[in-house]
Please model this.
Amino acid sequence: MTEHYDAAVIGLGPGGEVAAGKLLAAGKRVAVIERELIGGECAYWACIPSKTLLRATEAAAAAGRVAGIERPAIDWPALRDYRDYMVRHLDDTAQVEGYTEKGAAVLKGDAHLVGPGQVAVGDQIIDAAEVVVATGSEPVRPPIEGLESAEVWTNREATTLTDIPSQVLVIGGSAVGVELGQFLARMGAAVTILERSAHLVPRETARVGELVGAALRADGIDVRTGVEATRVLRAGSRATVEVSDGSHIEADVILLGAGRRPRTAGLGLGAAGARLDERGAVIVDEHCRAGTRLWALGDVTGVALFTHVAMYQGRVVAANLLGEQRRAHYEGIPRVVFCDPEIAAVGLSPEAARRAGLDVATHEVDLAETIARPWTYEKEPAGVLGVVVDRRRQVLAGAWAVAPLAGEWIHQAALAIRAEIPLQTLCDQVAQFPTYAEAYLAALEPLSR
Model:
């Protein structure tokens, strides 16, 4: 027997949950479909556990930099227990009950689209006026000879670990590699990071990679850029990894941080009229519509693989399904790597701005030389803020920072870019003293007419 619903949401990560929650709150009859745990990758194996683990090592290191405090020891069993509490011990029973109480039909299993509005879950077929695909992404496994012979971790194994390994090789120097590499190093592992690009965090400007590389090396991490792993040989419990520069690295664990790809395999999206791009991402329009009676949001769209973008797209999709003509706008989306110091960026890098044909002006300020807050925050303050300005339009086009709490105060730049606030207005704004946000005035004033 076919069940009929106003909407079926496939994938209950943060974006899917936002869409489903808003539709249920509006009184719609909704089916939610999840093959693993309600809450998705972010709640159980990525954002929440990683930031929980990172906070302990960050706080310990920060305490060692504050006047009058000695660096404390980390109680690994206690931290591990709190991590398990934060990820609900990988149990979504309460979430299933919560959706059921709200009136949703909760289906656990793999979903397969058999036609527009038609979704098969096991032996059951449901009919929905609209289908929302929010299946997320999965780690890329690089084609390295012999990789299958080694102990290989993705973010899932790394964030649910029980014991700290002795030697870790991290393949990839973007967010996953930088964050988890620093955590493992600060917990006592010998860590090497390989990044095939010329600098770490390659989506950002090279200056960011330079500053982050220096911070990681100060933690004892062997950072190597412009190289990649070419072959893995297993010897006993360890692996020997051959590197493209001819060197060899021994490791107990190889941690993959080489990016993620949209999870679309086996969904039958073609039967529902969806189109995929060369990366396998679902192509959506400005409303997040993917086809007749079909919508997509989050990592599966390939637009920007961030939880906050998925949640934003969830709001956009729900609004459209409830009768509002709402478009998604991606100007001013912040990007944060939660290492120590934090990396935060928004808008265009200087290189991307020039490629876009903008009349670019840039400026960089050393925070310790410019504002008071770093000196109240730590004994040997450090931090850099860079800005990218569109000189013709006199608006901010991009900003980046490598500094304490940068992920919190990057949002001033994010809003300025999204709203196209004139530089004159930004320079006339009064910032609380003493805060890191004061640095925007020092960075922007030289570029304002």
The mean pLDDT is 97. Residues 47-63 form the longest helix (17 residues). The CA atoms of residues 301 and 343 lie 25 Å apart. The chain is about 30% helix and 25% strand.
